Amino acid sequence: MALQSLDIKQRSATTTPAPSVRKTVEVAKLIDVSTCIGCKACQAACMEWNDIRDEVGRNYGVYDNPMDLTDKSWTVMRYAEVEEKGRLEWLIRKDGCMHCLEPGCLKACPAPGAIVQYANGIVDFHEEHCIGCGYCITGCPFNIPRISKEDGKAYKCSLCSDRVAVGQAPACAKACPTGAIQFGTKEDMQDYAAKRIGDLKERGFDKAGLYDPAGVGGTHVMYVLHHADRPQLYSGLPADPGISPLVSLWKGFAKPLASLALGAVALGSLFHYVMKGPNEVSKETEKEVEKEGSQ
Amino acid sequence: MIRDPKDLQRYTPQERANHWVVGISFILLALSGLAFFHPAFYPLSQLFGGGTWARILHPYIGVFMAFFFVLMFLRFRKLNVMTKTDKEWLSRIGEMVDGDDHNMPEQGKYNGGQKAMFWASVVCMLLLLVSGALIWRAQFSPPIGLVRFAAVVHAVAAVAMIALIVIHAYAAIWVKGTIRAMWYGTVTRAWARQHHRAWYREMTGK
């Protein structure tokens, strides 16, 4: 989906600047967990707009269906039953790509241009450049990308980059019947979240807050949580996500240095030959061997 | 082909074939692996028909090489046991690199440097095989922490292995009369006497 080509902020496995003359405002999707009723209209809208039908799977006796994200289900509702202060709380979280400001997938990807981040913050996979190595999964702090068993390419939520590019809200936000999914500039979404959090606090959720984790530079999909102090309650939303230090080590400054070191070994060998000369069998040894042979 | 009946047999045809199967696999693995290592090397994936083909082929070539490397390990492991003389040789490797090897301790079929290379390769190959399996997404999906760790191990071991092989190949180019041992299996008596005196005596009784 290469509709936006002049506002690319970051491009995977690319060491020179990407086309970035067009500046756009940062956008965000705000998911207000406290007003979500778990109807799955967002799941239906996602498959409809993107025109991808997952296989009809099994029902496991719970509301979660499908049970996990797949290459064809880019968003899923996760239902957690939690007991808080003697009351049952049904915490329903719409899971999918968080569109990190510092995307671990993009950092890990070895294929030039297979993952891009637009100036508006959306992190998009360009499957035609994807080689199917799965490094994006290794890099992602949220366990989002999925490799298709059919074509070997990685897929995930695009935040409807094609819709956003023409001024439309993502399909899930458009379909949500309660307004639990809002879409706009990141700033507007933060303001809107502040109002919602104020309301929740008045109603006794004194730990209500915005999930916009700093460990990944903030995200372009944010949650309003009643229990922002314990995001793990929401089907394992990580409390402090960040790109793993191992991924940073693997994809960081060590690689250019190692590449230079390999070049140095090769060139060092060449210059050793040039400066020291070949190690040849000496004439004396040849003579000694002849002498020994004639004995 | 017998070039000179006095030449000494250093490698059997089976040993040579085994070496080249591993060597060719290694070159293919290094080229395809570097393509994923850093964007600067990504164009190397074109040699394999593009990034996707390089990604598909790399692990299979890896398994193939691992199998033949095990065979090679079994063939040569006894000849590569480190001795006291080898350690002395290694401690004076500076003289060797400087080009003056006449006073180096007498060496058997392999010198200390070759043995160190052998064992370093064994360690790297083992790390590459295990970590490579862990990051082979098309086949396995181990816990994510393990995959991340394996990705680092694979990259580090690969760099070490490539550096080792560059040195290995250069040493063969530098020491004249060596490469023919891997082409047709023999070396001259003078070569053996100069570089592997103890082996020379063992082979000739002189």
Automatic annotation (TrEMBL), chain A:
CC cofactor: [4Fe-4S] cluster
Cofactor details (free text): Binds 4 [4Fe-4S] clusters per subunit.
Transmembrane domains' residue ranges: none
CDD domains from the UniProt entry: FDH-N
GO cellular component labels: plasma membrane
Residues that coordinate or bind [4Fe-4S] cluster 2: 46, 157, 160, 172
Domain 4Fe-4S ferredoxin-type residue range list: 27-55, 121-150
Matching SUPFAM superfamilies: 4Fe-4S ferredoxins
InterPro entries given in the database record: 4Fe4S_Fe-S-bd, 4Fe4S_Fe_S_CS, FDH_Electron_Transfer_Unit, Formate_DH_bsu_Proteobacteria, Formate_DH_C_sf, Formate_DH_Fe-S_su, Formate_DH_TM
GO BP annotation list: cellular respiration; formate oxidation
Keywords: 4Fe-4S, Cell membrane, Electron transport, Iron, Iron-sulfur, Membrane, Metal-binding, Repeat, Transmembrane, Transport
PANTHER family linked: FORMATE DEHYDROGENASE, NITRATE-INDUCIBLE, IRON-SULFUR SUBUNIT (PTHR43545)
Protein name: Formate dehydrogenase subunit beta
High-level lineage: Bacteria, Pseudomonadati, Pseudomonadota, Betaproteobacteria, Candidatus Desulfobacillus
UniProtKB/TrEMBL annotation, chain B:
GO terms for biological process, alphabetical: anaerobic respiration; formate oxidation; respiratory electron transport chain
Source organism of the structure: Candidatus Desulfobacillus denitrificans
Primary location class: membrane
Membrane disposition: Multi-pass membrane protein
Gene3D superfamilies noted in UniProt: Transmembrane di-heme cytochromes, Chain C
Compartment(s) of residence: Cell membrane
Family label: Belongs to the formate dehydrogenase gamma subunit family.
Domain (Cytochrome b561 bacterial/Ni-hydrogenase) ranges: 10-185
Key words, A-Z: Cell membrane, Electron transport, Heme, Iron, Membrane, Metal-binding, Transmembrane, Transmembrane helix, Transport
Chain segments annotated as transmembrane: 20-41, 53-74, 116-137, 149-173
Gene Ontology MF term list: electron transfer activity; formate dehydrogenase (NAD+) activity; formate dehydrogenase (quinone) activity; metal ion binding
GO cellular component: formate dehydrogenase complex; plasma membrane
Top-level taxon of origin: Bacteria
Cofactor: heme
Protein name listed in UniProt: Formate dehydrogenase subunit gamma
